[in-house]
Write a structure and sequence with these properties.
The structure is a homohexamer of 257-residue chains.
Chain A (H helix, E strand, L loop, with lengths): L1 E4 L13 H7 L1 H4 L4 H12 L5 H28 L12 H6 L24 H25 L3 H27 L19 E3 L2 E2 L14 E3 L38
Parallel strand pairs in A: 2-4
Helix pairs in contact in A: 1-4, 3-4, 3-6, 4-7, 6-7
Chain lengths: 257, 257, 257, 257, 257, 257
C-alpha cells in the first residue's frame, strides 16, 4: 500500500524560473535515465525477488525514487511557473502541451517501459540497477553543468548524491551474493570457450587487463569456425513460383564468380 | 570499415525445425536483451570513449556480437525452414510476416533504440554493459530451458558462455579504472547525505550489508525534510479565467478540511 | 514524499495459479487502461492544477491507483508462481522474460506515456480522467468474464468498483466547476458555426438528440465552403530541377481531364 | 466508401508563412490531441457500436475530423511554402524531412495508435471522445495564443469551435444513454466499497463535493486491509540456485555449478 | 473535404466468423503493410507534391485505400461477431480489448507513423509507394494462404488485386518522370565512385547483372581508403577528470599490443 | 562472421565542428532514412532470400552500409568534439545525453525497427530497397544544402553517391527477375478489376499515363458496389445489457431521419 505526504522528502527552491532549463530537466522526469525508470524498475523487481532482504531494499529505494520523481516534477513546475512570460520558441514543449512536468524526455519523446531492465534473476536485476544509477548520475552531472540557478543546482546535487548511495547499496547486495566481481550466475556453467578473446576489430590494437593472460586467451586472428550455413530451403513465399520464372519474368542471367 | 565472411563464427545446426521455438528465439535477435542491442550499444560507445584500450575492447566485442546476431538469425532461419508445414496458429508471426529473422522480439514488438544504455562517461557505459550481458545471459538460460533440440541448445550454450566472457572483460575494464566496487565516478563529489538509507517501505523490514553501519546510516523512520512546495503560481492555461468563473460555470462550492 | 506499507490496501488471494491468465492481467499492469496509466496521469496533473481541493483529490486517487497497481502485480506474481509447471507455449511471455509482473500489456507491448492524457487545463484533465476510469472499468469487466478463479475475481471486482468511485469523484469535481454537462471551457468563445452538425456520412442516416434542434442545426448535404487551397508554391526539394526535366528524365506527357 | 472533394470544408488562408509556427501546428496533425487521433478514434468505434444512431454520429464526426486534418495539413503546407528562405536552425524538422505536413507531433515524435482510446462499450467510447475533444480544444487554444498570423488564427478558431460542438454532441449521446452523470455502466454492479474515499495523500487536505457525504464516505486515515502478500514461491529463474536463503545474509554461500 | 457513403466500395461477406483469423487480419488494418499506412502515406504526400496530375493520382488512390481500410475493418468486425462463443485463449486480443478492428497489428503492436515513407521529393515518394504496394500485396497473399473462408478470400483477393493496380499506376507515374529505371534524381550529381561495387561479404561470391561491367566496376578486395579517424578529442564528460585518475580510482595499467 | 578494420572505408574530415549540425546528421545515423535502417534491412533480407546471387548482393551492400554508418558516426563525433564550447540551447541533445552519435534521429526520437521494410518475397524486398535508397539520398541532399563545412559536404556527397549506386544495383536485380516494370509478382493472379482506376478525389481532376487507356479503365464517377455491411450482431461488451437500459439509464429517445 502506498502513502503520500504532501511535504517533499528534500527541499526544492528554484531561484529564477527558466522554462528552457525546465525542458532539459524532463530528461530526469520522463527520460531514459530518469526517476520514473528507476522507481518502476526497482519496484517491479521486488515482485519476483525471493530474498526478503534484497526485496525490502528494492522497495525502500523505489519509494525514495518516487519521492525524487516528485522533486524533479516540482523543479519543472517552478521553472515553468512564469510560462506566460516565455516566448514559444524558447520552450515550445510547455507552451503547446502545458506547463509543469510531463512523462516526456528533454527531446519530447514519450517515456517507454523499454527503458526498464529487469527479469528472471536477482543478480541480473542488481546489475541492471548499478547501471541505471550510473546513467542517472551521469545525466544529473550534465544538468548541473548546464544549470545557472543555485537553488536548482543544490537539489540536483542531492539527487546526484543519492544515486551514488543507491549504487553502493546495490553493489553491497551483489557482493553479499558473491556476484560483484564474478561474471557467472545462474545454473548453466559456461562451455570451454569462456576464456577466449577475439581480436575482431583490427588496427591499432591495444591490450589491457580485459584480454590478457591468465584470465583470457587472446586470439589475434580469429577464423570463422562455423562453416557455411545452409541456404534457406523453404523460401518465405512458400507458394511462390521459382524466382525469375514468375509470370512476366524476363528470366535470370547471372554467372558465379 | 566492416567486412563480412559468409562462414559463421561458430556452428549452427538445428536438428528439428520448430517455428514456435523460432518465435521465442526472436527475443535474442530483435528483443531487449538480444544481440542487436549488445552490438549497437558497445559499438556506439566506442565513438565517444577516449581510452584507446577500452575503445578497442568495445569494438572487438561489438563485432563478435554482430557475428552472434548472425548466428541467432541462422537459428531462426532454420527453425522456420519448414514453415509450409506449420499451422498459422502455431507461428502466426512468421506465417504473416514471412520466415527467417525479423527485428522483433518474441512478442512481436519492434526493436527500439530505447533498449540501449550509453552516453557521456566510460564508467557509465561499462556498467551498462555488465548489465546488458546479465540480461542476455538470463534470456539464453530461459531459452535453453525451453528448448528441445540438441543442436540448438549447443549453439545457445555457446552464446550464453560468451556473455559471461564479455561480462568478465567489462568487469576487468571497470576494475582497471578502480570502478568495479566504487560507486563514485565523474567530477562532482556527493553531498553529506551519501551514507543515509531511508526505510521508506515499512513492515517486515529486513536488514543487510546494503544498509548497515559503518557504510550506511539507517533512518528507520524518515520524515519529509522538504516542506510544502509552492503551489503553481502560473496556471497552465495562462489565459484562463479563474477556475469556476469560466463562462457557463456553476461556481464552486467547497470547504477546506 | 512517498511512503509504502508492505501490507496490501485490499486482499489478493489467488486460488489456482494460471500463467495464461497472468498474461491477460498484464493489461491492467502495463497496458493502456491499466493502473500505471491512471496513477501517473492523475499524479502528473496534480503538478499543474491550481485548485488546492482538486489537486488533493488527484493525489489521493493517484496514490490509491499505485496501491492498486501493486495489487494487480501481486495477482500476476501469484498466477506465475508455478511457472515451472507451465509449458512455454502457454505463457511464453513469462517463460522468456521471467515470472511476475512486467510493464507490458497482454500483447507484450511496452507501456508508453502516450497512453496518458493531460495538460494545460483542469477541465481537460478531469474529462480525461472520467475517460480513463471508463477504460479501466471496461477492461476489468472483460477480465472478470475471462476469469475462472474466484479469489482473483473478487479482487478484480473490487478494482472495478473503485474505478466507478473515482469516476463519480471526477464527475463531482467537473460539476463543481460547472463543466460536467457544458462542453465549453477556457477563454476563447466559439465562433458562429458552433451549432452546425454536418451529415458527412451518407446512407441510413439516423437522427438523435446529438444533432436535433434547438441545440443543433442539421446540415443534411454539406458543401465544401473552403474552396480550392493553393498548390504548393515552394516544392519540398527546394533545389530540385522542375519535375520531368531532371537529368535522365523522359519528359512528362499528360493531359488534363 | 470514402469520397474526397479537393475543395476544403472551410477556408485556409495563411497571411505570412512561418515554418517555425508550422512546427507547432504539427501537434494537431500528427500529435496526441490532433485531428488524426480524433478521426481514427471515432471511426474505429463505429465498427463495434451497435446503436445505429450513435454509430452514424461517430461516422459523421469522424469524416469531419478527416476534413479538419486536411485543413491543418494545408495550414502547415502554407507555413512551409517559403522553406527555402528559412534557416535550418529555425525549422530543422522541415528542412531535413521536407516541407508540408508529416505524421509527427510538434516535438518530432511519430504519431502512434497508443493515443487512441476505444473499445468494448459505447459508454466508454463516448467518454473517451469527450476527453479527446477537450484535449484538442486545449491545444488549439495554446496554438492561438502562440500565433501571430490573423488568417491562421481564424482557421484555428473555427477548428477550436468544432471541438466544442463535437463535445456537446458526445455529451448529448451520453445523456441519451443516461450516462452523462452516472459513473456506472456495464453489467457488473459495484461492491460495497463504492462510496469510500481514502485520504492517502496527507497534509493540507482540502475537502470538496468529490469526497463529502452523503455521496461519499471519507476515510481520513486509511489502513492496509490486505495484509502481507505471500512471497514469491517459485523464483523467476526456476532453475536457479536458491537465492532466498540469504535474508540478511552478509556472506556468500553458493558454489559454481 | 472528405465524404463517406455507408455502403462499401466492394462487398464483404464472411461465411464463418473466426476470431483467430480476425487477429491475423489486423496486420492489414493496423499493421506496417496495412491500408492505414497506404492511405496516410499517399495522402500526406499530396500536400507537398507540386505536379497536379500526380497529386490527383495520390489523392485518388489514398481515398481508395481508406475505403479498403473500411473493408478490412468490416472483415474483422464480422470475424469477431461471435466473440462470446470464443475462448479467451484463442483470441485474447479481442476478448480483452473488445471486438471489431483496432489500430494494432496481428501481434498487438500499435500502428506507428514510423511505417510511413515520404518527404521532400516526388520521385522518392513514388518509389516508396511502389514498395508499400509490394508489402501490402505480400501480406494479402500470406493471409489468403492462411484463410479457410471463401467469402473472406474473395475480398482479400480483390484487395490484393488493387495493390497491383496501384503499383502499376505508381510505376507509370515514375516512368512519366523518366525515373522508373534511372536511379538518379534530385539536383546533386554523383561523384566518381558511382560505378564501384565493393565485395565486402566474402565467400561463395556470386556475380550478376547488378555488379557486372559495363554498368559497374567490381572491386573484389576492397581496402579501407579513409585511414584512421581521429580519436575523440573532447571527451563526452567534458568536466571529467582523466580516466583512471578519478577519486577512488586504482589507476590504469595496460600495455599496447 | 563480421570483421572490422579501424580504418574508414572513405575519409571523414570535418573542418569546423558544429554541434548543431551534428544534431541534423543524426537523421542518417539513427533516423528513418539513415544508414542503420539500410544496413539492417538489406542484411535481414539476406536470411530469407533463396537466390544466392541476390543474397550475396544484399550482404555486400549491407556491409557497406554498416561502414557508412561508421562514417556518419565519425562525422557526428567530430562535430561534437568541441561540445564544451557549445551552449546547451544550441545542442541540448548532446549536452544532456553526451557527445558523439546516438541511435536517435535529428528530432531525438529513438530508432525503431518499424522503419524496416522486408519480408516474405525477394521482389517485395528489392522494391523496398529502391525506396530506402531514395529516402536516404533525399536526406543527404537536404543535409548538404544545410551544410556549411566543405569537409563534411565532401563526405556527404560520397554517401549520397553510393545510394545512387545501390539503387541502380537493386534496379538491375529487379530487372533480372523481370520485375522492374511489372507490378505483378507472387503466385496469385489479379482478379478482373485490375485495370480500373477510380476517380475518388473530385475537382480539378488531372489525367496522366497512370490512369489512361489502354493500360487503365478510368471510372469517373465510382459508385459503392459493396452495399451496406451488416451491423455488429454481437456487441463488444458481450454481457452488456441493451444500451440505454443499463442501470441508471434515462432511456433513449431518438428518431430516424
Amino acid at each position: 500500500m502506498f502513502l503520500h505526504n504532501k511535504q517533499l522528502i528534500q527541499p526544492v527552491n528554484v531561484g529564477k524560473p527558466d522554462a528552457r532549463f525546465g525542458t532539459y530537466l524532463l530528461e530526469q522526469f520522463g527520460g531514459a535515465t530518469g526517476e520514473l525508470t528507476a522507481a518502476l524498475q526497482y519496484w517491479v523487481q521486488s515482485f519476483h525477488v525471493e530474498d526478503a532482504g534484497i526485496r525490502d531494499m528494492l522497495q525502500d529505494i523505489a519509494i525514495e525514487e518516487f519521492s525524487h520523481l516528485e522533486m524533479v516534477g516540482k523543479l519543472i513546475a517552478q521553472h515553468t511557473s512564469k510560462l506566460d512570460q516565455t516566448k514559444v520558441y524558447d520552450a515550445p514543449l510547455f507552451k503547446i502541451k502545458g506547463g509543469g512536468p510531463h512523462f516526456l524526455d528533454s527531446q519530447g519523446s514519450c517515456w517507454t517501459a523499454a527503458y526498464i531492465n529487469e527479469g528472471g534473476n536477482v543478480v541480473r536485476d542488481l546489475r541492471a540497477n548499478v547501471a541505471a544509477e550510473a546513467g542517472a548520475r551521469q545525466t544529473y552531472e550534465a544538468l548541473i553543468h548546464a544549470c545557472e540557478d543555485e537553488g536548482t543546482k543544490k537539489t540536483l546535487h542531492h539527487l546526484l548524491t543519492r544515486e551514488i548511495t543507491h549504487a553502493r547499496m546495490f553493489m553491497k547486495a551483489l557482493d553479499s551474493l558473491g556476484k560483484l566481481d564474478d561474471p557467472f550466475f545462474g545454473t548453466i556453467p559456461p562451455d570451454d570457450t569462456v576464456k577466449l578473446v577475439f581480436n575482431l576489430s583490427k588496427g591499432e590494437d591495444v591490450r589491457g587487463p580485459w584480454n590478457e593472460a591468465p584470465d583470457f586467451e587472446y586470439i589475434a586472428n580469429p577464423e570463422p569456425e562455423g562453416g557455411m550455413p545452409p541456404a534457406p530451403i523453404n523460401p518465405d513465399d512458400e507458394h511462390a513460383a521459382p524466382n525469375g520464372k514468375a509470370p512476366g519474368g524476363k528470366g535470370k542471367a547471372r554467372s558465379h564468380a
